[in-house]
Amino acid sequence: MRAFKKLMRQLYTLLFCLALPLVLLRLYWRGIKAPRYRSRWRERLGIYGSQSRQNLIWLHAVSVGEAEAAFPLIRVLQNQYPEQPILVTTTTPTGSARVQAVLTGQVEHVYLPYDLPFIVERFFAHFQPRLAVIMEKEIWPNLFAACAARSIPLYVVNARLSARSARSYQKIPALIKPALACVTAIAVQTDEDKTHFIQIGAASSQIQVLGNIKFDVTIEKATIASGHDLKQHLLATRWVWIIASTHQGEEELFLKLYPALKASIPSLLLLIVPRHPERFQTVKKLCEQQNLNVLMRSAAAVCSEQTDIYIGDSMGELKMLYAAADIAFVGGSLVPVGGHNVLEPAAIGVPVLFGPQMFNFKEIAERILAADAALQCVDQQAISDAVLRLYRDEAFRNRLVDNGKRFVDSNQGATTRLAALLAQNL
Fold it and tell me: From the centroid of its chain, how far is CA 42?
């Protein structure tokens, strides 16, 4: 069995090596629309221009959502170990941009190396971390094996694993189980996540249920103030409905709803924030094809009475844009993406709506609905009904806001528990 597991990782490595030219070509292709995909590509191969570092805490967050969740944990670690250098890796340019915007000058930052032994070797030779922390559910067989070979304590934290993902991992147990055996501890969000990790090969003794650090979201007063200032000076007297973190196929649904809702809500302004920057211009063209008047956030201009759509084509401003809105719909939930973070708008004090596709946030979705702190809309008619009710019923709107803030506040504390877990190896 041990020989078979070794063979499986060798096969995985061979296939990854063969695919590497295609992976780099795809990176170049995506860079045509989003140039940041092509920048710093050498980091993905373990080639760095900076001086080598030793004895770091290394934390990996794939993209924006994982980075936002990691920030409170990073701040706690910085406060508890002020002399300890921290390395943060990401996979996506949007995640990288967010780390740089929030933590520039405070942490080292590079892209995660591709999971090939010779690339991983260069990464560890350059940075030499003393502790590795992987956010949510990233499982990289060669990277994990390299941590074990170097006796680097490895933690998977704020871990979540849907039933669908668990079924996928169960198809390759000879690859996944040895990788999980390299992990010191897995801090999962829920008991259900613990069950799924056990199903894919983790030992029960490895797993602790510590909650979700996304509840520990921090909203700066300056962010709220900036949102209110935007609403007052650029959005004027408009009733703002933000559609946040949208994906392809979602914007069309809201644009179809807009004319009828506008007839009932004359001051309605649709604020669309696409999830990926490369889609900003695509969404703009889509709106113009519907003969709608569009204003881009980057124009820094005042919305007129004729403006129908305001597109948030900026990075790192989503919390501020939530603060400028009257109600929020969180995207990625009307298409099979699995949803996005509904806790941020709830913490900010905006009534929250989302669609039926919330499998990546299943536990949060169920609990926020049970707390009467959000509305789930299964189709376009339900979305329209919810928006009209929130517009017309101020008491209902205020109750949803109050319940949302209370829901977030009452579930905080996972960051402190995670820091205590990591302290065992610090």
Answer: 24
> At CB < 8 A and 24+ separation, what contacts does 393-402 make?
397/327, 397/351, 399/372, 400/351, 400/352, 400/372, 400/373, 400/374, 400/375, 401/349, 401/350, 401/351
Judged on CB neighbours under 10 Å (0-12, 13-18, 19+), 25 is exposed
Whether 2 has a pLDDT exceeding 80, the answer reads: no
**Same domain, yes or no, for 401 and 419?**
no
Q: What number is the average pLDDT over the span 168-179?
A: 95
What's the confidence (pLDDT) of residue 1? 67
Place of tokens 């979305």: 383
Q: Tokens 């919305």 belong to which residue?
A: 303
| CATH number reported for the structural domain that contains residue 346 in this entry | 3.40.50.2000
| Range in 146-150, 193-197, 360-364, 381-385 the model is least confident about | 360-364
Residues 324 and 375 in one domain: yes
DSSP 8-class letter at 105? T
Cα 78–Cα 422–Cα 86 angle in degrees, nearest 5: 35
Residue 26 lies in a domain: no
Active site residues: 66
Tokens of 192: 């259900």
Structural domain count, the chain: 2
Q: What digits encode the pLDDT tens for the residues 409-420?
A: 999 999 999 999
Residue 348 pLDDT > 80 = yes
Distance CA 303, CA 293 (A): 10
pLDDT digits (tens, 9 = 90+) for 180-196: 999 999 999 999 999 99
Report CA-CA distances (Å) from 392 to 307, 346, 347, 395: 22, 20, 23, 9
Helix (H) or strand (E) holding 409: helix 394-410
In tens, the pLDDT along 23-46 reads 999 988 988 877 888 889 999 999
Residues 207 and 238 grouped into a single domain: no
28: in domain: no
Query: Per residue, what are the HEC states of 269-329?
Result: EEEEEECCHHHHHHHHHHHHHCCCCEEEHHHCCCCCCCCCEEECCCCCCHHHHHHCCCEEE
Residue 239 shares a structural domain with residue 367: yes
Whether residue 352 contacts residue 224, with contact meaning beta carbons closer than 8 Å, is answered with no
**Do 329 and 208 share a structural domain?**
no
> Which single residue is written with the structure tokens 């979201």?
217
Domain that holds residue 388: 221-410
Are residues 306 and 254 located together in one domain of the fold? yes
Radius of gyration of the chain (CA): 22
